[in-house]
């Protein structure tokens, strides 16, 4: 009987530890980062940048985290009067120095002195993403403004002015 009580007590302690991980915000950030890195190798199936969207009386404001992206590789397209498409790509190339390449061509004993970098950690992901945002009200595509600074893309998406209720005169 004591063995059974200890088994359940240990099982509940393990469950408590597992659920306490879910309360830690860094757990989700680390999991999201690792998923992005894994899925990068699988074709970026679920890699999406973190996005905040707020609504004002006359517009929607979006803040999208895109660290490491060049603004020429970020694309914003309007599909219809309620849909905004956001896409982008980033590539990180790691090339050996030309001196290291020359030494690679020499014998294996001489290649011990290669000057090319020896990677310890390579966490910067390469890949692309695509996202679509459907707004509840029609948007004014001609007045959309976007800026990119310090890895954050800011997009202001104005709403189409609502004329409200209108009475039609009968002739």
Strand order of the largest sheet: 1-2-7-6
Q: Under the CATH scheme, which class of the domain at 47-92 and 125-163?
A: Mainly Beta
CATH topology-level name of the domain at 47-92 and 125-163 = Immunoglobulin-like
List unreliable stretches of 5+ residues.
Answer: 33-46, 96-111
Oligomeric state of this protein: single chain
Task: Provide the helix percentage.
Answer: 25-40%
β-strand percent reads 25-35%
Number of strands: 7
Q: Could you tell me how far the N terminus lies from the C terminus, measured between alpha carbons in angstroms? A: 91 Å
How much is the radius of gyration in Å?
26 Å
Question: In CATH terms, what is the architecture of the domain at 47-92 and 125-163?
Answer: Sandwich
Q: How would you state the average pLDDT, rounded? A: 74
Order of helices and strands: HHEEEEHEEE
Largest sheet: 4 strands, antiparallel
Structural shape: flat
- The computed structural class is alpha+beta
DSSP helical segment count:
3
Give an overview of the whole structure.
- This is SHSP domain-containing protein.
- It comes from Rhizopus azygosporus (Rhizopus microsporus var. azygosporus).
- Pfam families: HSP20.
- There is one protein chain.
- The chain has 171 residues and is an alpha+beta fold.
- The chain is 27% helix and 27% strand.
- The chain is built from three helices and seven strands, in the order ααββββαβββ.
- A four-stranded antiparallel beta sheet has the order 1-2-7-6, with no helix packed on it. A three-stranded antiparallel beta sheet has the order 3-4-5, with no helix packed on it.
- A hairpin with a 2-residue loop joins β3 and β4 (83-90).
- The chain is flat, with a radius of gyration of 26 Å.
């Amino acid at each position: 009987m004591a063995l059974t009580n200890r088994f359940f007590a240990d099982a509940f302690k393990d469950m408590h530890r597992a659920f306490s991980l879910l309360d830690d915000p860094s757990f989700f950030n680390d999991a999201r980062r690792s998923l992005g890195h894994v899925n990068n190798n699988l074709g970026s199936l679920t890699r999406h940048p973190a996005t905040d969207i707020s609504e004002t009386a006359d517009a929607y404001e979006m803040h999208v985290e895109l660290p490491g992206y060049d603004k020429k590789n970020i694309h914003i397209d309007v599909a219809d009067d309620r849909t905004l498409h956001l896409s982008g790509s980033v590539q990180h190339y790691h090339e050996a120095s030309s001196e290291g390449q020359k030494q690679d061509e020499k014998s294996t004993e001489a290649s011990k002195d290669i000057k090319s970098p020896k990677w310890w950690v390579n966490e910067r992901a390469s890949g692309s993403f695509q996202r679509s945002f459907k707004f509840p009200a029609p948007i004014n595509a001609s007045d959309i403004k976007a800026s990119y600074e310090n890895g954050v893309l800011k997009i202001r998406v104005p709403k189409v002015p609502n004329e409200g209720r209108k009475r039609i005169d009968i002739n």
